[in-house]
Amino acid sequence: MRKILKTIIFIGIIINFTSCGENINTEISASGSIDLTPGVETQILSGDKIKPADADTVIKVRHNVEDSTKYVSVLKGSITLVRGDYTVGE
Fold first, then answer.
1. How many structural domains comprise the chain?
2. What pLDDT digit, counting tens, does each position of 41-74 carry?
3. Which of 6, 27, 63, 69 has the CA that lies 20 to 30 A from 17?
4. Cα–Cα dist 42/60, whole Å
């Protein structure tokens, strides 16, 4: 039983690593918005807002625990990613 569980975990890790890094757009603008369609992944930050085009839109959020970055990708439909205001002080 333990061997089967270890095998399943190992396969899951391999699948996760092979799917990471595909179609990544890591350009982070200071403000503004980005329209995303299926097949594009971009980094999201605290304060960003995701506006789906309609109720049928499906997204995936990937969290990289090594450096605490998060990425969003569209699986179905489209979204507008509205960047937050990242200015510190005035």
1. 1
2. 899 888 888 899 899 999 999 999 999 899 999 9
3. 27
4. 11
Range of the domain at 37: 23-90
In a domain, 13, yes or no: no
Whether 17 is covered by a domain: the verdict is no
Q: Please report whether residue 15 resides in a domain.
A: no
Would 70 be classed as within a structural domain? yes
In angstroms, the Cα distances linking 57 to 28, 29, 44, 50 are 23, 24, 18, 11
User: What pTM does this model have?
Assistant: 0.58
- The answer for residues whose C-beta is within 8 angstroms of residue 74's C-beta and 6 or more apart is 36, 37, 38, 39, 40, 57, 58, 59, 60
